[in-house]
Amino acid sequence: DYVKERAIQVTDLGLHTIEVLEKYSPDIIDEKLTRHFEKEMNTIVKGKKKGDEIIKEAKVILTKILSHFKENEINIGKGLTEAFHETMTQSSVVGKCPACGSDLRIIFSKKNKSYFVACSSYPNCKTTFSLPKYALPKPSGKVCDSCGYPVVNMIRKGKKPYEYCINSNCKKKEEWYNSQRNQSM
Question: Which residues of 19-32 are buried (b: 16+ CB within 10 A; e: fewer)?
Fold first, then answer.
């Protein structure tokens, strides 16, 4: 979950990771350091320097970086945990609740071992939508052109993904059910 789509796009998790590391351990992501050691490796390949020299230098630098990292380990962990939770929350939002306008999110029920869509304002709003079993739902960013409810991408192992309107009363449901029956034949 550090990048998404085919063309590499940094996710919020990737951005937050870099921000946290820049704040608490900037040397660990220093491009100049990486470039320096790449050049040093090339001098070894060309036979101009011995590997032992470079390894000694790397040990000194990395020991300093890791020591600084260890000092800030708790803050780094907190920052990365917050970034992870924020990213997971954002990556589960499928649209707006038709009842109250809050976010609708994909949620996994441990009890039923299945996914469903529910309003993030629970318990104030108890709006929920069932999702088909045996598929992994992902937000599509689309709305149904028939009813205006959010559409989710349903991913199944070994089968073509499909788009699914969460509204059980949508007129396109009958079309969808027919197409699914035809695919399985």
Answer: ebbeebbeeeeeee
